[in-house]
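Dear colleagues,

As part of the handover before I leave the project, I'm documenting each prediction I ran so the next person doesn't have to rerun anything. This entry is a single chain, and its sequence is reproduced below.
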Amino acid sequence: MRIDASRQHEPPVRVHLAGRGHRAAQLGDAPIADADVRAGLAGLDAASLIKCVLAYEPVWAIGTGVNASAAQAAEVHGYLRGLLSEVASKEIAQGVRILYGGSVKADNADALLAEQEIDGALVGGASLSAPGFIAIVRKAARGAAARGE
């Protein structure tokens, strides 16, 4: 599944969501629809690519309260970063933010955001609870500070 959302401000930011169903994950198929991601990034020059934000959200996690393990999410993020290296360059791949979405909550944010490949969180339902969302933001800020960002 891929969704493009281009913001109408200057400079435009392109957000690409990539995911896979539970059955594909169980079968060990490609982590995401490779062709969809390539198509979503096709035609973008380096200046546009570096402004992209990629987000991985397992389709099976949407609205379930179940998330991928930190290791599973990091594996897919590494795959996406490798794909970006192929499409553009290693430098651009390192500069593009790759977020994890999929039942991110205050109780799993630390583990997810501790992974080197995960640059941030795409928070859905947990953002509806101010205390829970604030806890996620604080954990993200602490993690970024620890990494020197």
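Helices lie at 22-27, 34-41, 46-49, 70-87, 90-95, 106-114, 130-146. The chain has one domain: 2-146.

All the best with the project,
I.
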